[in-house]
Amino acid sequence: MAFSEFIINNEVIFDVNMSELRPVNGNGESINLNGPTARCLQLLIESNGRIISREEFLESVWKTRGVVVAQNTFYQNISLLRKSLLKAGLSQDIIVTVRQRGFILATGSSIVPVVKAEEEVSTCQITPLIKKVVTIEDSVPEINNNERQNYIENKRDRAFKLPMWFILMFVIMAVTNILSLLY
């Protein structure tokens, strides 16, 4: 089963589809990640505690999409990911560099995939979130009902967001088309 959201250390929600990091309880800000950075985080989360080598990152994040990048680009994305996680409200860096081998999520990091239950059609209420816990270590603190309710309310208030580069590209294309009609 592919998950679209993960709660990291009960502090930050990673929305895979939107490439977005959101604080669970408001102790940070929402951060939109670029595609490669989001895929780096997704690869680390889905690695289930194994070390991901630089070559595996380059292959999974860029080469499978037909893009070849310098190693410096890879390291810049890892740095950006670390900064974004902290800015979104994570209290400590969870990405550990394993010298000469690659990167891994810190031991004790809590990664909770969010599974959404189906809506009840008759009452039109959203049912509470169901959790399936996946952790590096088997000790995961529970999310209390207040945090869960805050998450549900924040989810309802959030509108679909388009990336800024997409909106900018659309505006430029529209202006170009209008100008081409004039000349």
UniProtKB/TrEMBL annotation:
Residues 4-107 bind DNA. Pfam families: Trans_reg_C. One of its GO terms (molecular function) is DNA binding. Residues 4-107 form the OmpR/PhoB-type domain. One of its GO terms (biological process) is phosphorelay signal transduction system. The chain crosses the membrane at residues 162-182. PROSITE patterns: OMPR_PHOB (PS51755). Keywords: DNA-binding, Membrane, Transmembrane, Transmembrane helix. This is Winged helix-turn-helix domain-containing protein.
